[in-house]
Amino acid sequence: MLWQFIYEPKNGLLNGFLSAIGLSGAKQVWLGDSKTALAAVLGVSVWASVGFYVVLFTAAMGSVPRELYESCLLDGANRMQTFVHMTIPLIWDAIQVALVHLVIGALDTFALVQILTVGPGGPDNSTEVVALYLFDNAFTYSKFGYASAIGVAMFVLTLLLTVIAFRLSRRERVEY
């Protein structure tokens, strides 16, 4: 709900900030324009989920012993070599978890779209996502069987994409 106030066309924080720094021409009706509505919802989604990924990767990188970094430094590895050849393999399990969460989160953006945008699917259906399409069919048009089929298809698609993400990111486990 706070983001609706930030994106408010007349008195919103974002348009007020743009006016304050001299970019009055960049003011938009962020959630009411089909060209900017999806990007605005995506911005909120990124803002909402970045904290989880920061905590996930901070914990993963914090579990790597400092002695390994010192060893790489003594062996003459630069920062990029250390990151690619030591850090990434040691935090690979966290990267896999992040990929799965991204896949599931991408298919489950119903709440943000429902709350932020005007009407079902935003202006010109520019923000309509599969979960919102399911909701509209079930509760607006009373097509519960069709909505159930969409839900099963979403489940299968989520499962399939999760398995693909795990298969593509499968590596030999590195232990220290």
Question: Care to describe what's here?
Answer:
The protein has 176 residues and is mainly α. The protein has a single domain, classed as MetI-like (MetI-like fold, Orthogonal Bundle), CATH 1.10.3720. The protein is built from nine helices and no strands. Helix 8 packs antiparallel against helix 9. The longest helix has 26 residues. The mean pLDDT is 88.
What is the gist of this entry?
With 176 residues, the protein is mainly alpha-helical.
Number of strands: 0
CATH names the topology as MetI-like fold
Shape: flat
Please mark out the parts with pLDDT under 50 across 5 or more consecutive residues, or reply none.
none
Mean pLDDT across every amino acid position: 88
Largest sheet: none
Question: What tags apply to this protein structure?
Answer:
176 residues; mainly alpha; MetI-like fold; 68% helix; 0% strand; single chain
Which helices and strands appear, and what pairs or packs with what?
Blueprint: H1 2-6, H2 13-20, H3 37-62, H4 66-74, H5 79-90, H6 92-107, H7 110-116, H8 130-140, H9 144-168
Helix pairs in contact: 6-9, 8-9
